[in-house]
UniProtKB/TrEMBL annotation:
Highest taxon above the source species: Bacteria
Protein name per its UniProtKB record: Uncharacterized protein
Originating species: Streptomyces coelicoflavus
Length: 103
Protein backbone atom coordinates (compact mmCIF):
# COMPACT_ATOMS: atom_id res chain seq x y z
CA UNK A 1 0.00 0.00 0.00
CA UNK A 2 1.43 3.34 -0.94
CA UNK A 3 1.94 6.28 1.40
CA UNK A 4 -0.48 8.18 -0.82
CA UNK A 5 -3.21 5.62 -0.11
CA UNK A 6 -2.59 5.97 3.63
CA UNK A 7 -2.75 9.80 3.51
CA UNK A 8 -5.94 9.78 1.47
CA UNK A 9 -7.59 6.94 3.37
CA UNK A 10 -8.20 5.22 0.04
CA UNK A 11 -6.33 1.97 0.58
CA UNK A 12 -7.93 -1.39 1.28
CA UNK A 13 -9.17 -0.30 4.71
CA UNK A 14 -10.96 2.87 3.75
CA UNK A 15 -10.66 4.19 7.31
CA UNK A 16 -7.67 6.37 8.29
CA UNK A 17 -7.30 4.82 11.77
CA UNK A 18 -7.33 1.30 10.37
CA UNK A 19 -4.90 2.27 7.61
CA UNK A 20 -2.48 3.87 10.10
CA UNK A 21 -2.51 0.93 12.47
CA UNK A 22 -2.36 -1.78 9.83
CA UNK A 23 0.77 -0.11 8.41
CA UNK A 24 2.41 -0.21 11.86
CA UNK A 25 1.25 -3.79 12.46
CA UNK A 26 2.60 -5.00 9.12
CA UNK A 27 5.94 -3.27 9.76
CA UNK A 28 6.28 -4.90 13.18
CA UNK A 29 5.15 -8.29 11.91
CA UNK A 30 7.74 -8.10 9.12
CA UNK A 31 10.51 -7.81 11.72
CA UNK A 32 9.35 -10.95 13.55
CA UNK A 33 7.75 -13.22 10.93
CA UNK A 34 8.33 -12.20 7.34
CA UNK A 35 6.22 -15.04 5.94
CA UNK A 36 3.16 -14.12 8.03
CA UNK A 37 3.71 -10.44 7.19
CA UNK A 38 3.84 -11.22 3.48
CA UNK A 39 0.60 -13.20 3.63
CA UNK A 40 -1.08 -10.47 5.67
CA UNK A 41 0.15 -7.73 3.34
CA UNK A 42 -1.15 -9.64 0.30
CA UNK A 43 -4.56 -9.99 1.94
CA UNK A 44 -4.59 -6.34 2.99
CA UNK A 45 -3.75 -5.18 -0.54
CA UNK A 46 -6.52 -7.40 -1.95
CA UNK A 47 -8.92 -5.95 0.60
CA UNK A 48 -9.53 -9.21 2.44
CA UNK A 49 -7.45 -10.27 5.44
CA UNK A 50 -7.37 -13.96 6.22
CA UNK A 51 -8.95 -15.02 9.51
CA UNK A 52 -5.49 -15.66 10.94
CA UNK A 53 -4.28 -12.20 9.95
CA UNK A 54 -7.47 -10.59 11.30
CA UNK A 55 -7.01 -12.30 14.66
CA UNK A 56 -3.35 -11.32 14.76
CA UNK A 57 -4.27 -7.69 14.02
CA UNK A 58 -7.00 -7.69 16.70
CA UNK A 59 -4.61 -9.12 19.29
CA UNK A 60 -1.80 -6.76 18.26
CA UNK A 61 -3.91 -3.60 18.49
CA UNK A 62 -5.26 -4.66 21.89
CA UNK A 63 -1.78 -5.37 23.23
CA UNK A 64 -0.40 -2.11 21.85
CA UNK A 65 -2.88 0.36 23.32
CA UNK A 66 -0.49 3.13 24.38
CA UNK A 67 -2.77 6.03 25.23
CA UNK A 68 -4.76 4.73 28.16
CA UNK A 69 -5.89 8.11 29.42
CA UNK A 70 -4.37 7.34 32.82
CA UNK A 71 -1.89 9.64 34.49
CA UNK A 72 1.55 8.39 35.52
CA UNK A 73 0.28 7.54 38.99
CA UNK A 74 -2.79 5.71 37.65
CA UNK A 75 -1.31 3.32 35.15
CA UNK A 76 1.65 2.42 32.98
CA UNK A 77 2.78 4.31 29.91
CA UNK A 78 3.30 1.86 27.08
CA UNK A 79 5.91 3.12 24.61
CA UNK A 80 5.41 2.32 20.97
CA UNK A 81 6.04 3.53 17.43
CA UNK A 82 2.46 4.79 17.09
CA UNK A 83 -0.08 6.11 19.55
CA UNK A 84 -3.03 3.75 19.96
CA UNK A 85 -6.00 4.77 22.06
CA UNK A 86 -8.75 2.49 23.36
CA UNK A 87 -10.98 4.16 20.75
CA UNK A 88 -8.49 3.22 18.01
CA UNK A 89 -8.61 -0.37 19.22
CA UNK A 90 -12.39 -0.36 19.11
CA UNK A 91 -12.32 1.14 15.61
CA UNK A 92 -10.07 -1.66 14.35
CA UNK A 93 -12.17 -4.33 16.08
CA UNK A 94 -15.39 -2.87 14.61
CA UNK A 95 -13.77 -2.70 11.17
CA UNK A 96 -12.79 -6.38 11.43
CA UNK A 97 -16.27 -7.41 12.64
CA UNK A 98 -17.86 -5.49 9.76
CA UNK A 99 -15.84 -7.69 7.42
CA UNK A 100 -17.09 -10.90 9.03
CA UNK A 101 -14.21 -11.61 11.40
CA UNK A 102 -14.86 -12.85 14.90
CA UNK A 103 -13.17 -10.47 17.32
Amino acid sequence: MSDEHVRQGTGPGGHPTVERLVAAWLEETERHDSEAAGEARDGWERGALSERAAQDLATWVTARVTDTGFGEDEGPYVPGPVRITPSDKETVHAWLRARGHSV
